[in-house]
Amino acid sequence: MASDSIDPAPSAAAFRRGLELPLVLLAAWEVGSHSGLVNPQFLPPLEKVGQVAWQELRNGELTFALATSLKRDLLGFALGSGVGIVIGLLLGLSSVADRIFTTWFNGLKQIALLAWIPLISLWFGFDETAKIVFIGLAAAIPVILNTVEGVRATSTRLLEVGDIFKFNRLQFVWSIYLPSATPSLLTGLHLGLIYAWLATIGAEYFMAAGPGIGGLIISGRERFEMALVLLGIVVVGLVGFCVDRGASWLERRLVSWRTV
Is residue 111 part of a domain? Predict the structure, then answer.
């Protein structure tokens, strides 16, 4: 069984309920920063964050940082998902590979992701390649887990059909295993997208400084501009939310045949 799952179709009411807590927190933020309960140097008011956002948009810094982070994120996700599908198919289809590698993989995936940064930096340096490899590693883990689960859940009746038509190994994979594993695989890709975005910010923050939303946050921290730091955090949250909802929508459309 894969260790993670996604709620496939939250209702509009659930979505509205999900907005209640963020709105309450925003209201508390505004009241606290204006009432003197919180030092505005540490928690600037929302309008200050808005002014910084407008300034960063006008000079192009925010747009460039976001575009750089998204490009890095997509490259890492493409690398991780591609490798993850191949490894997942290998572990799911080959009993030999399963016996040799599954125990090792289950042990390695327990290691905190950030613990790999020093090793990746030694192997790939401190530039863009290391960041993309780190993001790819984050994306690959849920893809591998869910691909293995989907392949192993393939119905024996479908396999019997393949035997009747005398499918070769490639035809079994393409015509039976992959279609059967599609719902689980899409869940893995969905999780991979989320993990890749989180890893993107981690890579930008903990590896060599450079352009990106993580770099924007670091710049605000070093200059003690909390409005810029909070702007970066808000952007990270909004992008993560959009990635999650967009992936959920696409996943439901691609596997709508399950409910037919």
Answer: yes
pLDDT band at 6 (very low <50, low <70, confident <90, very high): low
Dist CA 138 CA 203 (whole Å): 11
Q: pLDDT digit string (tens) for 91-127?
A: 888 888 878 887 788 777 788 888 888 889 888 887 8
Element (H, E) at 104: helix 95-108
Domain-embedded: residue 84: yes
Measured between alpha carbons, how far is 237 from 201 in angstroms, rounded to an integer?
11
Which pair of tokens denotes residue 102?
């599954």
* DSSP letter for each residue of 160-182: HHHHHTT--HHHHIIIIIHHHHH
Q: Yes or no: say if 45 and 30 are a contact pair by the CB < 8 Å rule.
A: yes
**The whole model's pTM is what?**
0.84
Count CB-CB contacts under 10 A for residue 85.
21
- Contact predicate 129/74, CB 8 Å: no
Whether the CB-CB separation of 143 and 211 falls below 8 Å is answered with no
Long-range contacts of 30-39 (CB under 8 A, 24+ apart): none
Domain with 142, as residue range(s), is 65-259
